[in-house]
Please model this.
Amino acid sequence: GLIAPISLIDQKIEQRVQARLKAGVEEEVKNLVNKYGWNRTLLSTIAYKEWKSYFEGKETRAQAIKNWIIHEKQYARKQMTWFKKQNGIKWFDISKIGWKDYVIINL
Model:
């Protein structure tokens, strides 16, 4: 499994959200909502559900993005908690120089 300090994970999450914004996630959500409405799938999926209040005029775009980032970070922490309870996982710290080589050598 891959692991990193929480600060690095948070930074990568924020970078990924910004990349998805640049790639047009807002328009993607609009198109899906126009086609399917706010169905169960959209309302339960991180990166989609956070736009509902914004599209309804109940919060700002910035707040929708902030909520998205918060939910991504919360989910990452839940995943880490679950994986740490699993036995037999060999962890590789991606914040270490040469971690990819270490993975290849140790697998």
Observations:
- The first strand starts at residue 2 and ends at 3.
- The two ends are 11 Å apart (CA to CA).
